[in-house]
Amino acid sequence: MNSTENKNKKNGIDTNCIKLAQSAGYNKLKTNNSEWAAKRTAEDPEYFKRLAEGQQPEVLWIGCSDSRVPANEVTGTQPGEVFVHRNIANVCVHSDMNMLSVLDYAVNVLKVKHVIIAGHYGCGGVAAALTNKQFGIIDNWLRHIKDVYRLHANELDRITDDKAKVNRLVELNVTEQVYNICKTSIIQNAWMERNDLEVHGWVVDISTGLIKDLGVSSSSPHNLGYVYEFDSSLDAIAAH
Ligand SMILES: [Zn+2]
Fold first, then answer.
1. Tens digits of residue pLDDT in 72-129
2. Phi, psi torsion values for 14, nearest 5 degrees
3. Domain ranges in the chain?
4. pLDDT digits (tens, 9 = 90+) for 30-39
5. Ligand 1 mean position to 139 CA, how many Å?
6. Annotated active-site positions, please?
7. CB burial class (10 A; 0-12, 13-18, 19+) of residue 73?
8. What kind of architecture, by CATH, is found in domain 58-239?
9. Sheet of 114-120, strands arranged across
10. Ligand 1 centroid vs 124 CA: distance in angstroms?
11. Dist. CA 121 → ligand 1 center (Å)
């Protein structure tokens, strides 16, 4: 056994057995990266030095995982300007530790000023939720969107055009997720401490590239409804 074989075995993996994908599309990613880094450095020799020093984004983008709605490109922003969390159909579930961790870090450490829930027309996740088909484990995730449908069934059932129905549910889903984010103790406690934090709902129209602001922005808990609005956590501690 030569030294290379020994090294491979030592790591616990026989890499000789791994057939690496060498498709043109995959290799292009590496070429693109080299070209991008070289171009940025040529334009600004200090660019990556500054980027490596840290981030101070003012925006948290919670969007769909769909490959056609990248946060930076859609908003014309640069690396370092937008903190990003994405999942299928931009759903914000109050027991999702991944989303809550991102939200807490963005709001309480990075001190972002805007949280944007960004859906997009023609969302495959939303369209799937409107069917009775099974797609696998994702059905459990999409059930949150079925719940949004149930809340607005009267309106949605009157829409006969399938595409229009999906797109209206996209808007209603974004609105519901804005409320869900506002209901979190993370956002409500931040609102008690500062007045420069807003939550917004947008939909990206992939056919034009343009954003539609749904006009559901919120900067206080007062329209959440009685049962969702928290007292100050400090008041609660004092009461015991
Ligand atoms: Zn989507």
1. 999 999 999 999 999 999 999 999 999 999 999 999 999 999 999 999 999 999 999 9
2. -85, 95
3. 20-54, 58-239
4. 999 999 999 9
5. 14
6. 64, 66, 68, 120, 123
7. exposed
8. 3-Layer(aba) Sandwich (3.40)
9. 82-87, 59-64, 114-120, 198-205, 210-213
10. 5
11. 8
